[in-house]
Amino acid sequence: MKTIWIVGAKGRVGKALMRLLDERQYKLFETDIDDVDITDQESVNSYMRITRPDVVINCAGLTDVKRCEMYPDEAYHVNALGARNLAIEVDAYEAKLIQLSTDDVFGSGLTAVWSEFDHTAPRSVYGKSKYAGEQLVSSLCRKYTIIRSSWVYGIGKDYVSRVLDAAEKGGELRVSASEISSPTSAAELARAIRVFIERDLYGVYHVTGTGRCTRFEFAKTILEYAGKSDRLTLLSREAAEDLRPMYSVLNNMMLRLDHVYEPMHWKEALREYFDELEGAER
């Protein structure tokens, strides 16, 4: 039975992993900032020494793009140094580190999908700090898997909940018609992570829903699947800020080459998400 430590277990992906992983198959440890502060290497070392995990999954991170711009030291402290501390301790205990990253490590200008082998050029502090975390993990840990994803949604506050909250209030919502990427459900991401737990696969992998859409199309589909299309008027707008890549569709090339996992189309995964929400409300 493998021992798994999920760091950032209260986030969207952390919650999805806790729901997916069977405690009869894995010995699970879940922590969040109140339990273990990953920016404190001694705290990480102490927890590793007590739990001795085989696999550590780092779902923690400062993901608020605007906050990262306002407080860059905090962004690098969590996204880069936190990842560094985990990498050092995971390597010392000869475990495996699964590090979650983002499409924001890429810049703009490309209109083809980004593969794991394309040049990174993050523009925002968020993207730069996450890429710094990637670099530290790859240089300090022998057994690592870096998973980049995009537009992740799940249980908690996210783009889906924002659109639904706006629908409850009614009126209008301005949504970008120029940002393009691939929405990814936390449940789908968790299923892919489970494969990486079991298989000796290392390096950088992209894991996103298949297909692509604009933020406007994503919001429109959210309202349609929630049965609230008549509750909110969507108005298209151009992206107001130059922080996130305008086109960040990721190519799941390494998933295909290593026969890891084939994610669902983003619309199919979104439908599954709403079906699960309806089932939970019954």
TrEMBL record:
Gene3D superfamilies from the UniProt entry: NAD(P)-binding Rossmann-like Domain, UDP-galactose 4-epimerase, domain 1
* CDD domains per record: dTDP_HR_like_SDR_e
Matching entries from InterPro entries are given as:
dTDP_dehydrorham_reduct (IPR005913), NAD(P)-bd_dom_sf (IPR036291), RmlD-like-bd (IPR029903)
Q: Which GO terms describe its biological process?
A: dTDP-rhamnose biosynthetic process
E.C. code: 1.1.1.133
Ranges for the RmlD-like substrate binding domain? Answer: 3-277
Listed pathway(s)? Carbohydrate biosynthesis; dTDP-L-rhamnose biosynthesis
A single GO molecular function term of this UniProt record:
dTDP-4-dehydrorhamnose reductase activity
Q: Which UniProt keywords apply?
A: NADP, Oxidoreductase
Which cellular components does GO assign to this protein?
cytosol
Q: Could you say which enzyme class this protein belongs to?
A: oxidoreductase
PANTHER family from the UniProt entry: DTDP-4-DEHYDRORHAMNOSE REDUCTASE, METHIONINE ADENOSYLTRANSFERASE 2 SUBUNIT BETA
Task: Describe the family membership recorded for this protein in Swiss-Prot or TrEMBL.
Answer: Belongs to the dTDP-4-dehydrorhamnose reductase family.
Task: Sum up the protein's function in the record's words.
Answer: Catalyzes the reduction of dTDP-6-deoxy-L-lyxo-4-hexulose to yield dTDP-L-rhamnose.
Q: By its UniProt entry, which NCBIfam families does this protein fall under?
A: rmlD
UniProt protein name? dTDP-4-dehydrorhamnose reductase
UniProt organism field:
Lentihominibacter faecis
Show the taxonomic lineage: Bacteria, Bacillati, Bacillota, Clostridia, Peptostreptococcales
Originating gene: rfbD
